[in-house]
Amino acid sequence: MDVKLRNYVYGQWVEGAGEGVALTDPCTGETLARVSSEGIDVGRALAHARQTGGAALRALTYEARAAMLAAIAEVLAAKRAEYFEISLRNSGATEADAGFDVDGAIFTLKSYARAGKALGAARHLKEGARVALAKSEAFQGQHFLRPLTGAAVFINAFNFPAWGLWEKAAPALLAGVPVLAKPATPTAWLAQRMVEDVVAAGILPEGAMSIVCGGARDLLDHVTECDVVSFTGSADTAARLRTHPNVVARSVRLNVEADSVNAAILGPDAVSGSAEFELAVKEIVREMTIKAGQKCTAIRRILAPAGIARALGEAVAGKLAACKVGNPRSEGVRVGPLVSRAQQAAAFEGLAKLREDCEVVFGADPAFAPVDADPAVSAFVQPTLLYCDKGLGARHVHDVEVFGPVATIVPYVGTAEAIALARRGGGSLVASVYSGNAEFLAELVPAIAELHGRILVVDAAVGAQHTGHGNVMPNCLHGGPGRAGGGEELGGLRALALYHRRHVVQGGPALLDALEREAADAALLGA
What is the model's pTM? Predict the structure, then answer.
């Protein structure tokens, strides 16, 4: 193939200047395409999005914008097979991996299309009851939420080129805010193709969606106080965004989802042979292998009672040994490569740090060879399970996230230590707990809640009906405090709050009546 993918800006497709950056197949090393943002006037692109796309979107009702999301989902569903092929070639995705990304994107769009109907023919929101500001009713206050007149700027991660785009774009477009997406360069092909297909379908007004592939360059120099920047990626990059001079000077709204050392926690009742033990083993293996562990929500630390920690390691290792690792084009392969040689190198570097604290239970085999792939050009990392008995004294286990198929078992003694270990992660997107012990759960869950965006509790009664440790549901919160970035996404219609500005109008009843005529109740955001 090796063509240069175009950027969609100012209502037209524009090819970036220069040779561009190569996108490759992580199994074969083959160059698939190139991307370049050189020569793209991102300031003009943002202005066009605000003035043309934003104005057109805000002229529509929430209900009409919800219908657009449904139409986008139909377009993407019709081209699902093509997207799976791109995922295979550019991300090394197995069919299950591609489904997690592509089907997750379509499902999220459909969810917001359904939810948006509840807001009806409104164009903004009113919040709460009127506030009396005088002895009579002549002067009152009413809080409102209005869509921002800026643009939603997405700087996305490489691991979910489909879902990462649409889980952000769905609530932004529903709110009436145009989107400019900057996908991560190594896997930009899928996001670019999806935008190309949606543009070709003519669903959105001109300027409602733009995409720039390649370097972000001076993008943040052009954001304003009415824009939103939503970033998914490393904590180091997030820190640079937060301190960008223009972001600071204009107080630009910034939403961050950063790396996270998520934990799975087994309760004292999750002994070998119990339903909770078996459910934990199944989920740990799934999280280590789906997308080769390249998920911001993946399990990185496994906290287990000291008495069962070794047995847990043996059970997980036994399952990992049965997972075939290699080229997803080969029959029976369950675990594919990381998305690039650069990511592979970063994973090996992180793994070396973890091994300073740990012993190897499974993996890290110097003789490991992937199925039907050349180790000299491919980007595979063997699934690796570690064991660390240093608890809170470990130097790296609670701080280093290896973005690949690597997890560490950490034994604990008593609920207090389990709580301390979970909190030592410094803020996480998710923790999963495998226990039916009411006393343990009553102490643990409230104690770790402030440092986790989501807590999944699985017991024998829940069984296999749970949605998964790493599976982000569109009607539940996604995000986390501290090192996880401090941001919030999804959560159903709650996500619309990021793209609205709250204000209060103080005045007479007639004025407030007029302003409320096209307002839906903001209480629906939490419904």
Answer: 0.97
Average pLDDT over every residue of 390-404 = 97
- How many degrees, rounded to 5, is the angle at CA 8 between CA 250 and CA 106? 90
Token pair 């489904």 is found at 99
Work out the average pLDDT over 221-230: 98
Helices (H), 13-61: 42-48, 55-58
The closest alpha carbon to 158, from 365, 379, 334, belongs to 379
Among left, alpha and beta (phi > 0; psi -120 to 50; other), residue 92 is: left
CB 260 within 8 A of CB 429: yes
| Residues 36, 13: Cα–Cα separation, whole Å | 13
Reported for 475-478, long-range contacts at CB under 8 A and 24+ positions apart, including other chains, are 475/111, 475/115, 477/453, 478/167, 478/257, 478/429, 478/453, 478/454
- What share of the chain has pLDDT > 90, as a percent? 98
Residue 245 and residue 271 share a domain? no
Single out the residue of 148, 147, 151 nearest to residue 209, CA to CA: 151
**Which residue pairs, CB below 8 angstroms and at least 24 apart, start in 413-418?**
413/305, 413/306, 415/268, 415/440, 415/443, 415/444, 417/391, 417/392, 418/265, 418/303, 418/444
Q: Which candidate in 27, 127, 276, 296 is catalytic? A: 296
Identify whether residues 403 and 297 lie together within a single domain: yes
Give me the chain's average pLDDT, please.
Answer: 97
Q: Are 46 and 180 in contact (CB under 8 A)?
A: yes
Q: What tokens were used for 198?
A: 């949606």
Q: Would you say residue 1 has pLDDT above 60?
A: no
**Cβ atoms of 31 and 193 closer than 8 Å:** no
| 83-93 pLDDT, tens digit each | 999 999 999 99
pLDDT at 2 over 80: no
Residue 394, burial from CB neighbour count under 10 angstroms (0-12, 13-18, 19+): buried
The candidate with the shortest Cα–Cα distance to 123, out of 518, 453, 522, is 518
Catalytic residue list contains 27: no
Q: Is residue 482 part of a domain?
A: no
Q: Which of 127, 167, 257, 488 is catalytic?
A: 257
Please count the structural domains in the chain.
Answer: 2
- Domain holding 348, by residue range, is 263-477
Among candidate residues 272, 298, 297, 250, the one with its CA nearest the CA of residue 408: 298
Q: Is there a catalytic annotation at residue 257?
A: yes
Specify whether 381 is located in the same domain as 252. Answer: no
